[in-house]
Amino acid sequence: MGWIEHDYPDAQTLVARVSATLEATCRQALAARSHAVLALAGGRTPLPVYAHLANAGLAGRILALPTDERCVPHDHPACNLRNLREAFDSAALALVRHSRVGGNPASDLSRQQQELDSRLRGNDDQSPYGNDGALSRHADTGIDVHPLTTAEGDVDASLALARTWLAAHPQPFDAVLLGMGADGHFASLFPGAANLAEGLAPDSGADAIATLPDPLPPEAPFPRISLTLPRLLHAGDVHLVVGGQDKRAVLRRAQQDPHAPFPVAALLHAAQAHPIHIHWSP
User: Fold this and answer.
1) What's the whole-model pTM score?
2) Is 179 left (phi over 0), alpha (psi -120 to 50) or beta?
3) How many CB atoms lie within 10 A of CB 282?
4) Are the C-beta atoms of residues 231 and 168 closer than 8 Å to each other?
């Protein structure tokens, strides 16, 4: 069904609107069945969105799954699971802190983001992780983030874990949040990967693949586990967040040509029940 574009004047407005949209989706799902299921992108850009969800006072359980994961130990700084859990946990801590001393949690978002950035860089001596990489929750956000990989990050074992979990949870995601790289990749479906076609094929029958970007991104040179395109599209709503003019130029090429050399072209032109929501800001 194509896509719907949402343009914003700046990244702050984009974050606010996407946050409100995901909150509304969660509330609708929680009202219907007391739980919601999300697939969430890693990276720094969506972290304020996750902080908003943690602070939203949602009544019920939210199960979140990374859209993709680096095959590294769970306590590694490059681990999406760690970063997602840190984002939700940091927001919950801020909420508890404000409930004790008074004030508005939203007014402290900047300081909260700074604290989170420091923790993600490993500068927090009081890490919420034990020696085995398991998260010790400081506060109950009502949001559980499930891993796509084993604690040690073994590729084969992680792929088996991801596929087993997804097979046991075949229901559609209530919402999927994706980002897009400058090369047109989304999740960990990279244009140079040897098995990209398996990840994009609508009839592959696979919910997840193990993949190795080629070339390896220097900032994260690791093999990955990624949800496949058909599993990501098995959702009520799919949101694609894109920032900057350069990425918008890639997006335009992918929109105009379903055979463009960018994986996002397959996402945009796939047969789907609902349109993709594209959120862009300069």
Assistant:
1) 0.85
2) beta
3) 12
4) no
How far is 232 from 123, CA to CA, in rounded Å? 34
Residue type, 68: D
- Residue 73 CA to chain centroid, in angstroms? 18
pLDDT by residue (tens digit) across 85-123? 988 886 555 544 444 455 554 444 455 445 444 444 444
pLDDT tens, residue by residue, 22-34 = 999 999 999 999 9
Return d(Cα 208, Cα 227) in angstroms, integer.
4
| Residue 47 phi, psi dihedral angles, 5° rounding | -55, -40
Q: Yes or no: say if 92 and 140 are a contact pair by the CB < 8 Å rule.
A: yes
Do residues 213 and 190 make contact, with C-beta atoms less than 8 angstroms apart?
A: yes
Within 10 angstroms of residue 16's Cβ, the number of other Cβ atoms is: 15
Distance between CA atoms of 247 and 176, rounded to whole angstroms?
Answer: 20
Question: Token pair of 69, please?
Answer: 């994961």
- Sequence-separated (6 or more) residues with CB below 8 Å from residue 50: 40, 84, 87, 88, 91
Alpha carbon distance 163, 179 (integer Å): 22
What is the torsion angle, in degrees rounded to the nearest 10, for the CA atoms of residue 110, residue 111, residue 116 and residue 119? 150
End-to-end CA distance of the chain: 26
Q: Is the peptide bond before 282 cis (omega within 30 degrees of 0)?
A: no
Q: E strands within the chain?
A: 3-7, 35-40, 61-66, 68-70, 143-145, 173-179, 208-211, 224-227, 235-243, 276-281
Helix (H, G, I), strand (E, B) or coil at 248: helix
Radius of gyration of the chain (CA): 18
Q: Please choose, from the candidates 103, 92, 167, 187, the residue with its C-alpha nearest in 3D space to the C-alpha of residue 136.
A: 92
Tell me how far apart the alpha carbons of residues 114 and 148 are, in angstroms, rounded to a whole number: 27
Comparing CA positions, the residue from 28, 49, 31, 52 lying closest to residue 40 is 49
